[in-house]
């Protein structure tokens, strides 16, 4: 079955159909429930791979658009579309969902049916967020996905789960309500919720926002996204949510949900409010850099392994935000790449941590030590994930971080040099934690007899490792597709620098030629003159 | 002089409701069968509600302009009629369980409904006053219907005292407005001197009187006590029916009388902010589900008042401009009535004999014991919270939109903040139901049964909540008709 013209709708609603089917199963048929949800999510993943073939490589603008009227007054449309950026985020989502389902195969024994329904509904919301081109529709999915996530944390989480779940919802809610006001305000100015239409109006000069209005609107949107990312100092919900969430919840949370924030910045903040984005860029970058360093430092002193990984997310997402607000094609692509890479590598870290928890029911690093002896395979996978997370060349984390730093350096070398500290620090905390957990003598007698990775766990982690490696080597497969979309965003935010737009598709086929072409300085001063000099 | 037939058509719903109410009272000494009266009340509320279609088909002013049968009154008659019908459905099992007499309850309910219908269609202040009294006096008695319960009597007493106080304000306001304008007809007031102090004073009195009825802060203090003490089906009625009717009258006054529109923007602004905060902050600390819902209904009155502030701003550019804001109010009232009705029905059913199980702790682990009920109650909570795919979301969205349209950004932001505060206690209900374990005795007890009639109420309200959350088109298109109010044709 090849979903025809409605691929995007199928992608959004297929998991919902699966969830409905689950609803019909008996609650104690745990085996069928697990298999059915796995089949649904794998099928969804296969559907999402069609995106790669259906959307032309290197094309800018939205592909596979779907449009239907929904509500007459105000005119709200069911408008979907995909571009190079959202395509891979969707695939990341559909990839991590079956992984999460497999990861919860044994560890979830309580209310199994509801658990898998929630996971699938979460997928519906997240995919919807990435594919919506109507501001209203986007907001709708953005809100809808809150409830399954909150329930995943609150019902199947650990000791302080209820606190974490409520905190998660309230933080997100606070941001998104402001965003709703912003969306309506924007509707008042434009008469439409349709993102491409608004972009068109901005490009044609039909819509001109006063600087102050633009800044307020930018902040209304940005705050909602910054909470989600989370950007320092709005990150405090994240460690709680991560530590209390079940493994599948953590994987989805770190892997996909955080990306909704950075995706929102790329998709909405920059294109809709370019001037405000430029004016705010310095502040945002400062917060991002603080987040990078602060997150890394806090991660370093964590006695709790899961919290350590959670804080590493704060640090890594700081890189993404920095890459976005450096307004450079390369750093933008790096940001997109880092979003994907972080989803995979942090997802893998959470998976291993979850597997350790399944065995010992604790996250305390002091409870472990010397685990490499009883469980060498798990140790190897953890090391692999940690190395990819800290940015070892040939693995996926390196590509993202390197591109971000490279692109940022072209415009603001100071930003890049501060951020580079984060790379060093991440090596410190990840390797140090690895040493404390897996190396040395076995300090606790209990740990001596722990079983190594089971077949299921090996398959999960091996899949993650293969993807990690592939993304580290075959990065051009992805960057060829993200380049044009990233350039579109850059053009919208800084239209006065047309020379970067000249050959977007040639930028990324290999990493080598991009440095000379893109050492162009910032545009403010006499452009042509300086460009001649640098060349 | 006999009234013309067409006049009768224009008040047909109220006539039918009153008629059936009287019939129930007359038959009470002769029929012993409880189900007979339930059946009669169902027929009465249903025929009255359906008769509003006849009234709408014969639109126009009735009784020399005392009442107006237009789309606006059609909407509210349908709303209060449906609410009454559903309350009858839900009340039957309740009255049986609590061993309360049946006929009087239905008679009072029908009279109250008729009063609300009059309120919604009144085009003249004294007629409105009669409607208000009809619904209020019936409500006072209904609040104290569990005579042997101390709380119920207290509730009735409080409601009666404060309610009559408010009514006095309202009446005094009418007198002053009459003194200033020489008329009590709303449409005639459109052409009077706006600057008259007497008129302003009179309108402020009317606003205070109706402010009591809709539980706007600082006139809201009676609400939690009355809602808590009254029999729960009655509470369901209170939160849905009379409130909607009072808002209807308020809307009609402030849509019709320009003097009211121009002067009262800040009054509504302040009322809205106070009411939202009073409701939401009060609800945060409640442990009794009825009180929690009572405070939440105060908060929701605040949200509706936000739309009123938008109405008054927009209406300055002419009544037609304010169309979206009117629609926002009406749509919100609809969604709100559905949800509150359903939620109180569940509370009433789960309360058990003598309404003992009203604490939030009694809801712990409900998702295990009664998954369907917990799921439906969650839908209501999410709708009150304003989450997409529920009607409450669109209700809030339209109010947001009206507020931003009229440049009330700050009010919109304050409403946003309040929504977040509100989400905390709505979530708490869900958290308690889904994330806490049942107490030992609750787990051991047999699940509370939901008779067919109650299930119908839940089904109607839950399906309505989802339906209007996915496809609000039909209702909104109806509400955005240019001739929502009868005048001008």
User: What does the average pLDDT of chain B come to?
Assistant: 88
Strand arrangement in the largest pleated sheet of chain A? 1-2
Total count of strands of chain A: 2
Number of distinct helices of chain B: 22
Order of helices and strands of chain B: HHHEEHHHHHHHHHHHHHHHHHHH
- Percentage of residues in helical conformation of chain B: over 70%
Using only C-alpha atoms, the radius of gyration of chain A works out to 22 Å
Main sheet specs of chain B: 2 strands, antiparallel
Percentage of residues in DSSP E strands of chain B: under 5%
N- and C-termini, Cα separation of chain A? 53 Å
Contiguous uncertain segments of 5+ residues of chain B: none
The end-to-end distance of chain B, rounded to whole angstroms, is: 26 Å
Domain count of chain B: 1
Broad shape of chain B? globular
Label this structure with key terms:
heterodimer; A: 535 residues; two-stranded antiparallel sheet; 2 strands; 72% helix; B: 489 residues; mainly alpha; two-stranded antiparallel ribbon; 76% helix
Q: Can you give a write-up of this model?
A:
The complex is a heterodimer of chains A (535) and B (489). Chain A has helices spanning 7-24, 30-54, 84-103, 112-131, 135-144, 146-156, 161-190, 195-204, 211-228, 237-244, 247-272, 274-300, 305-325, 329-360, 376-390, 396-411, 413-438, 455-473, 475-493, 504-507, 514-517, 527-534, and strands at residues 63-71, 76-82. Chain A has 535 residues and is mainly α. Chain A has a two-stranded antiparallel sheet with strand order 1-2. Chain A is globular, with a radius of gyration of 22 Å. In chain A, 59% of the residues are buried. Chain B is an all-alpha fold. The longest helix of chain B has 32 residues, at 150-181. Chain B is globular. The mean pLDDT of chain B is 88. Classes of the chains: A mainly alpha (535), B mainly alpha (489). Chain A binds chain B through residues 71-74, 139-141, 143-144, 146-147, 150-151, 154-155, 161-162, 165-166, 169-170, 173-174, 177-178, 180-181, 184-185, 187-188, and chain B through 324, 382, 387-389, 393, 397, 400-401, 404-405, 409, 412-413, 416-417, 419-420, 423-424, 427-428, 431, 434-436, 472-473, 476-477, 480.
């Amino acid at each position: 079955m090849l979903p025809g013209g409605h691929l995007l709708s199928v992608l959004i609603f297929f998991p919902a159909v699966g969830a409905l089917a689950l609803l019909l199963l008996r609650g104690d048929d745990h085996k069928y429930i697990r298999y059915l949800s796995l089949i649904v999510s794998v099928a969804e993943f296969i559907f999402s791979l069609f995106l790669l073939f259906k959307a032309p490589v290197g094309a800018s603008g939205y592909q596979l658009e779907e449009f239907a009227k929904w509500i007459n007054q105000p005119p709200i449309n069911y408008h979907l579309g995909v571009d190079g950026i959202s395509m891979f985020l969707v695939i990341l989502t559909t990839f991590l969902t079956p992984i999460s389902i497999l990861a919860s195969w044994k560890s979830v024994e309580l209310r199994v049916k509801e658990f898998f329904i929630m996971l699938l509904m979460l997928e519906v919301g997240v995919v919807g967020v990435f594919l919506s081109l109507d501001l209203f529709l986007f907001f709708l999915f953005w809100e809808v996905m809150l409830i399954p996530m909150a329930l995943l944390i609150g019902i199947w989480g650990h000791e302080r789960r209820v606190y974490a779940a409520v905190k998660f919802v309230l933080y997100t809610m606070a941001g998104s309500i402001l965003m709703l006001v912003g969306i309506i305000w924007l509707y008042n100015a434009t008469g439409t919720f349709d993102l491409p239409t608004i972009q068109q109006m901005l490009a044609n000069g039909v819509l001109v926002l006063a600087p102050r209005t633009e800044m307020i609107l930018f902040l209304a949107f940005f705050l909602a996204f910054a909470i989600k990312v989370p950007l320092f100092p709005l990150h405090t919900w994240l460690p709680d949510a991560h530590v209390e969430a079940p493994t599948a919840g953590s994987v989805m949370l770190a892997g996909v949900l955080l990306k909704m924030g950075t995706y929102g910045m790329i998709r909405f903040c920059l294109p809709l409010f370019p001037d405000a984005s430029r004016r705010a860029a310095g502040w945002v970058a400062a917060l991002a850099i603080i987040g990078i360093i602060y997150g890394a430092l806090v991660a370093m002193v964590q006695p709790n392994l899961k919290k350590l990984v959670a804080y590493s997310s704060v640090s890594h997402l700081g890189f993404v935000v920095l890459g976005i607000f450096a307004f450079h094609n390369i750093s933008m692509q790096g940001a997109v790449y880092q979003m994907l890479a972080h989803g995979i590598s942090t997802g893998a870290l959470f998976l291993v941590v979850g597997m350790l928890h399944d065995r010992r029911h604790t996250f305390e690093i002091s409870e472990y030590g010397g685990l490499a002896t009883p469980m060498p395979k798990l140790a190897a996978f953890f090391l692999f994930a940690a190395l990819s997370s800290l940015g070892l060349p040939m693995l996926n984390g390196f590509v993202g971080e390197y591109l971000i730093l490279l692109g940022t350096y072209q415009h603001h070398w100071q930003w890049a040099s501060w951020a580079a500290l984060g790379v060093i620090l991440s090596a410190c905390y990840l390797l140090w934690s690895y040493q404390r957990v897996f190396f040395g003598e076995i300090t606790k007698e209990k740990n001596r007899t722990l079983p190594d990775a089971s077949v299921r766990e090996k398959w999960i982690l091996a899949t993650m490792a293969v993807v990690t490696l592939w993304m580290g080597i075959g990065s051009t497969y992805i960057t060829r597709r993200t380049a044009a979309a990233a350039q579109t965003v850059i053009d919208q935010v800084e239209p006065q620098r047309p020379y970067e737009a000249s050959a977007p598709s040639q930028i990324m086929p290999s990493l080598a030629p991009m440095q000379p072409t893109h050492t162009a300085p910032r545009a403010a001063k006499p452009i042509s003159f300086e460009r001649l000099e640098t060349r | 002089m006999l009234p013309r037939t067409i006049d009768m058509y224009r008040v047909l719903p109220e006539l039918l409701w009153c008629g059936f109410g009287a019939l129930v009272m007359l038959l009470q000494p002769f029929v012993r069968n409880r189900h007979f009266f339930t059946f009669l009340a169902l027929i009465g509320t249903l025929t009255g509600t359906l008769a509003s279609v006849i009234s709408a088909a014969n639109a126009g002013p009735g009784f020399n302009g005392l009442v107006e049968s237009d789309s606006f009154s059609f909407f509210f008659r349908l709303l209060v009629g449906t609410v009454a019908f559903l309350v009858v459905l839900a009340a039957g099992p309740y009255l049986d369980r609590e061993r309360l007499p049946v006929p009087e309850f239905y008679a009072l309910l029908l009279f109250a409904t008729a009063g609300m219908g009059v309120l919604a269609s009144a085009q003249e202040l004294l007629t409105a006053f009669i409607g208000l009294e009809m619904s209020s006096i019936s409500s006072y008695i209904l609040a104290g219907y569990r005579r042997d319960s101390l709380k119920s009597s207290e509730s009735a007493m409080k409601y009666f005292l404060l309610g009559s106080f408010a009514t006095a304000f309202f009446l005094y306001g009418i007198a002053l407005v009459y003194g200033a304008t020489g008329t009590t007809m709303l449409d005639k007031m459109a052409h009077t001197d706006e600057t008259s102090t007497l008129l302003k004073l009179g309108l402020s009195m009317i606003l205070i009187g109706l402010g009591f009825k809709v539980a706007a802060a600082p006139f809201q203090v009676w609400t939690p006590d009355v809602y808590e003490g009254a029999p729960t089906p009655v509470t369901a009625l209170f939160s849905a029916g009379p409130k909607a009717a009072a808002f209807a009258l308020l809307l009609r006054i402030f849509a019709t009388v320009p003097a009211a529109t121009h002067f009262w923007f800040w009054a509504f602004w302040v009322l809205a902010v106070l009411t939202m905060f009073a409701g939401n902050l009060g609800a945060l600390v409640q442990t009794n589900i009825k009180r929690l819902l009572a405070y939440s209904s105060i908060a929701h009155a605040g949200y509706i008042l936000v739309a009123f502030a938008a109405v008054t701003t927009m209406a300055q550019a002419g009544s037609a401009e304010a169309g979206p804001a009117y629609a926002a109010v009406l749509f919100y009232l609809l969604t709100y009535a559905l949800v509150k009705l359903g939620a109180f029905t569940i509370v009433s059913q789960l309360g058990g004999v003598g309404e003992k199980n009203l604490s939030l702790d009694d809801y712990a682990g409900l998702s295990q014991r009664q998954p369907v009920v917990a799921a439906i109650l969650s839908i209501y909570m999410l709708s009150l919270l304003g989450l997409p795919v529920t009607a409450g979301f669109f209700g809030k969205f339209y109010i947001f939109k009206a507020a931003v349209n009229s440049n009330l950004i700050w009010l919109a932001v304050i409403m946003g903040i309040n929504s977040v505060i509100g989400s905390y206690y709505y979530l708490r209900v869900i958290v308690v139901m889904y994330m806490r374990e049942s107490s030992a005795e609750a787990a051991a007890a047999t699940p509370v049964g939901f008779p067919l009639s109650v299930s119908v109420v839940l089904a109607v309200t839950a399906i309505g909540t989802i339906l209007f959350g996915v496809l609000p088109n039909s209702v909104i298109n109806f509400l955005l008709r240019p001739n929502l109010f009868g005048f001008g044709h």
